[in-house]
Each structure stands twice: as C-alpha cells, then as structure tokens.
Amino acid sequence: MVTDRTFWPALGLGLALALLSGCTVNPITGSEELMFFSPDKDLELGQKYAPLVEKELGGRMPEEGLQSYVNRIGQRLAGFCQRPDVAYHFAAIEEGGANALALPGGYIYITRDLLKEFKTEAQMAAVLSHEIAHVVARDTLVAMSEQIGMTALMAAAQVGGSPDLARGTQFVTAVLTLQYSRDDEKEADLAGLTYMTQAGYDPNAMVEVMQILEKLQMIRPIEFFSTHPSPESRIAYLQERIARRYASFTGLKQGPEEYAERVLAPLNERKKRFNLPPQEPGRQEARASVGPE
Ligand SMILES: [Zn+2]
Fold first, then answer.
1. What is the distance in A from the centroid of ligand 1 to the CA of 88?
2. What is the CA(98)–ligand 1 centre distance, in A?
3. Is the pLDDT of residue 285 over 70?
4. How far, in Å, from the CA of 275 to the mean position of ligand 1?
5. What's the whole-model pTM score?
6. Which residues lie below 8 Å from residue 41, measured CB to CB, with a gap of 6+?
7. Can you give the C-alpha Rg of the chain in angstroms?
8. Residues 49-97: pLDDT tens digits?
C-alpha cells in the first residue's frame, strides 16, 4: 500500500533523516517501511505521555480486580503477537466514550463505556487484540507523524523529563483524534483475529464487537468508531476470514461467566454504591452530539 510514509524521505526532513533508524519490516504485513523511530523511542514516547493521556481520559478505573483482569487477559493475548517482547500495559479508564486506544510502546486502554457494552471475555479479548496489533505494526506512530509532523513527534520523544504543558496537550490531542488508515484498521482487525484465536477465544466475538459498535452508532471516533472501514465491511471480511481459516475450530472460549463476575458485577456494584449513572453526562453528550443523528 502506498501511503504518505513512503514519501517521507522526499520531504527533506533533515533532522529526521539524520536520526533515521533504518528500514524495519512491519511484522504483520511483512512489508518494509521506513521508520524514523527505533522501538526504544516508541517506549520513551509511551512512558512520557501515557500519564497525560490517562489523566485526560478521567484516570484509571479504581476497581483493582477489574484492572488486574483486563491486564491478565491482555498479557495473555500479547504472548501470541509478533512482538511479545514489548512490555505491554493494559488498563481500564473512566472516560472517552465507548472506545479503546493504543499508544506507542505498548500502552493499551479500554474505556468503561465500552466494557459495559460487552457480555463476554472473548469480546473484550477481540478489542485488546486489535489494539495489540496496532502496537505491533506501530500504526500509532505512523498516524501521529502524519498528523502532527515527524519533526514535532521526534521533538516530543526527545524532550527530557516530563513534557511541558503545551507539548503534552498537543500530543494528547493528537492521540485522541487519531485517524488510522482503512488498511491499518483492516490489518489490525485480521491480526487481532489471529491472536485471539491462538489464545483460545472464539473469533466470532470480533464480529459481535463490530455489531455492538454498529448499534451504538457513535460519531467522532477516537479509535474503534473510526468511520472507515465501515462496520459492515469489517464484519464481511472478518466473517470471510473466520469461514476460511477457523471453521473447523471448536470448543473455543466465549467466557460470559468470567466477564460477568470480573467486569459487569463491579460496574453494577459501583452504580449501586454511588447511585450515579455510569458516566458523566455532560462530557459524553458533548462528544456524542457531534455530527448527524
Ligand atoms: Zn484500530
């Protein structure tokens, strides 16, 4: 696929070229891509900006049992990807609509509003697998470099200590409004499908996730509600891949009991205890009201 990244060298980014770390192979597609960042830089970026992104999204959910469950499933799935050496971090966060996102370096988040839509462990595993695939392919880095420019991205990685407010805000805004390419999303869907099935989950749960997202009809995605590819086309290629590759697989896990116990029960408990709706109405409505009905 030809994308903007192919043309970086022609853009004459002197600084970037000077620090060029060479060609790397995207382990998902097998294609060679010019990457200006070494994987160490991914990690530096993630470490530096993860706290800011978490803060912007209302912080981590306080339920420790739920957090350790999300992390445990995530770590298990990551063991089946092409970059199991990355130190992955999985966390459930309070805000951001019904969504999931990945930062460079292995920081993966799933929001409370998305968790509460699911019924099974396999559905959550599908989303985490999709995000792991973005980390493996370094999609976030590529998309961000297209959005804020390679020079700004490199400067962000190089800043010593904690990032200043202006830089932090720029990075967080870029992450939260990121649009991946249609091809990147499809690759992440299909690679994620492989990881979750290898980990023993029913791949049909990925289709169920797309159906759930379709029903939610949210506008203005951070990540999973990306308007491209459409949920219908995602469902079509996922079903095609499942029929071709996994039709003979039986006895794969859905895990509704585990999910009810570890995720849905604590969410209900919270609702009862605080007698509050499970989201801050002002913020969510503001996001959801952008665009046509
Ligand atoms: Zn994605």
1. 17
2. 13
3. no
4. 34
5. 0.80
6. 21, 104, 154, 157
7. 19
8. 899 999 989 999 999 999 999 999 999 999 999 999 999 999 999 998 8
